[in-house]
Amino acid sequence: MRKIFIKDDLLCKDDNLFTYDMYMDACKKIAENIKKKYDLSDPNLGFIGIARGGLPLLVTVSQLLEFRHVSFIQCKMTNSDKPYDYGDFSIISEYIEPGKTKFIVFDDILYTGKTSYGVIDYLNKKNIKVEDVYALVADKSFQNDNPDITFQAGFESKKDSWVHFFWVEDIRDLASKGDSENDKEN
Fold it and tell me: What are phi and psi of 106, to 5 degrees?
């Protein structure tokens, strides 16, 4: 199943900017859904974020729910930070909390599903069940091929569009301003 929490066309514009307010709205909706759906006192349950993009969502939702059992898995799916520069999926590193046998997975965007499915397969091979996958954004073209897992997202973007997350854009702006300040000093 595939579910979108906030239905509007904010990410169907030319700039495709995912703002701070959109981020917080998505995080709150996702946290509400998890709180209703899961027993957060279950000692076998953990949250796992896909690095880098899923970590902000993981941290924010875990704070909203006061849930401390967080893990991460770092994957490589792109060749660079340039839009559409896709490569092959691989696992780089991980921290999976010992004793956890089921996880809710967090990612930034569901596009082809290659990253999410790679993580699901990796965890399943370790006898870890993936309960659900949550993302900030799902591309309109994303299709769920796994009937046992629900893929849920805060927002939907237009098909095949590059989403500009505020933290990436803000950091790039700060870095370029810092570079120009350093140039003035030299």
Answer: -120, 135
CA gap 177, 49 in Å, rounded: 30
Per-residue pLDDT of the chain (186 residues), as tens digits, is 889 998 877 665 667 888 899 999 999 999 999 999 999 999 999 999 999 889 999 999 999 999 999 999 998 877 666 666 677 888 999 999 999 999 999 999 998 888 999 999 999 999 999 999 999 999 888 988 888 999 999 988 888 778 888 887 777 777 777 655 555 665
Peptide bond into 68 cis (omega under 30): no
Is residue 56 helix, strand or coil?
helix
Asked whether the beta carbons of 55 and 49 are under 8 A apart, the reply is: yes
Rounded (5°) CA angle 167-60-94: 85
Contact assessment for residue 27 and residue 35, using Cβ atoms and an 8 Å cutoff: no
What is residue 94's three-state secondary structure?
strand
Q: 165-174 long-range CB contacts below 8 Å, 24 or more apart?
A: 165/18, 165/23, 165/53, 165/108, 165/136, 166/17, 166/18, 166/19, 166/20, 166/23, 167/56, 168/81, 169/17
2-178 CATH choice from 3.40.50.2020, 3.40.50.970, 2.60.40.1230, 3.30.70.100: 3.40.50.2020
